[in-house]
# Entry
Amino acid sequence: MKLKAWLLPVLALLTALSVLAQTPNPAPPVAAPPPTAAPAPEAEPAAKPAKVKHHKAKAKPAAAPAVKNSSIILDPPVTATVKCNVLDVRGQGSFNGEIITYAKKGESVTVLEEITLGHVHANEPAQWSRIVMPANTAVWVSAEYIDPDSMAVRAKKVNVRGGPGENYSIVARLDKGAVVKEIGKKEGWLEIAAPTNAFAFVASEYLERASAPEVAVAPPPAPAEPPPAPAPPVVVNVPAETAPPAAAKPPETASAGLTAPAPTAASQSDQELAASHRAAPAQPSASPEAAAISAESGKEDSGPRVVTREGFVHRALNIQAPSGYELHDIKTGVLTEYLQPAPGQKSFKIFVGARVRFTGAEFLDPDWPRTPVLHVETADLMH
# Structure
């Protein structure tokens, strides 16, 4: 048994060795063939150029060039008449301008410039006229630029506007030292009488220009005929015994050796007329208004007389005037009367800008002799 136990491991070992001995030798490694160069890739065909689609740009209509405003300055200015019932007077030559005052039919205005707008709104006139600011129109200036004592402009230049604020149009400019006439005040602004250089704008289609008077042109004078040639002198042989005696020469003056001509009747009358003109100084003529009143009354200073006057009512801008209200002519717009209410009568404020017929006593104020004063008793509003 012990022998078998020892032989079994030996036999197992031998068996393993014989198995190993019978395993064939491994084949030698076969050398790998040298690497061959990879074939060059075929050239890719050139890419065809992409077709470019040309889009024809649609031609946009050319924008119309902006039309600018044009103007013509009238030199000398032209007088025109309002031909509508009421015409707006604006601070600018368009509907953007605020209304400063009104002009009534028949009033005369002075046109300084004609303006044509390049762009207008619907129902807006394209033709505008720059005119002298109508009389009795109040304008505004900032109170901080006016000296309260002398009422003179203390800035280098100050703008005059159509209303009490910087949002109103500029209608004039005043230089330093110019004196203004105050009418009222409002929140730091002074209401003043319009200066002489103030202007405004109205639609041209409502103005009718005054036709220029025809000037008669005298025909050119006819050429003067040459004087006839003098006749040749006739020589007459006069015998010595029949020749007339020589005319006596007039006495000569001792100073100049000239004859002193005798004065003629014509020269004497001319001298007397000149002496009478020098002796009698020219008498001043009375004002047209005073003369008219005197002519109607038949004598001077005949006292108040009852008359009827018709016209448009305006406020009086002159603080020295005998009344605070004025009556202007219907056709010419000229001041004709100052209006004073009768005792117990209300103010004429409700009539400002209206056409009214007044009846009352008319007289002349001693301190205001050029324009009569109407002491109103009745007032009728005209339509």
Summary: The chain is about 10% helix and 30% strand. The helical segments are 2-22, 265-279, 288-297. The CA atoms of residues 13 and 19 lie 10 Å apart. Residues 247-302 have pLDDT under 50 and may be disordered.
